[in-house]
Every structure is written in structure tokens, then in C-alpha cells.
Model the fold of this input.
Amino acid sequence: MDFLWDVYDSANEAGDSVSLGFAPIHRVMREDMRGSAALTTIYVMATGLAAQSPASEAGIRQRLSRETIARDHQRFRRVR
Done:
């Protein structure tokens, strides 16, 4: 849950350099998560957010790491 809040909020604390707001989160939920075999996982959310905002990918990876969420999530790519 901390991961999503840090992606959403505009306040950047130590280790949080991502502030994307609600629109990208909602877009991933509407587009990427609906087409995923996993349906609802943080991996689909993180992959979708990084794809939408390549400049934020390093910050997204850093937040996942701080939450001790494994970054090897290739098997949860969007199904088309």
C-alpha cells in the first residue's frame, strides 16, 4: 500500500522520488490490469506505471526495493 501512496502523492520523502498522481494509476487499472492473467498484482501496476512514465522507472524500482517487493515480474506482462 505504501508503494501506491508514494506513486500518487506529491510529497517526496527519503527514498521516494515518484509523484505521478491518480491518472496514471487509474489508467493502469483500466488498461493493463484488466488484460493481465494475474488481474490484480503490484507487478502489473509497477510495469504499467513504468511503461507510461519511463522517466519514473528508476524511482518505481527504488520504491519496490524499499518495500522488499521482488522486481522479477516478467511473467505478469499484459495479455492481449
About this structure: The longest helix spans residues 22-32. The mean pLDDT is 80. Residues 18 and 34 are 24 Å apart (CA to CA).
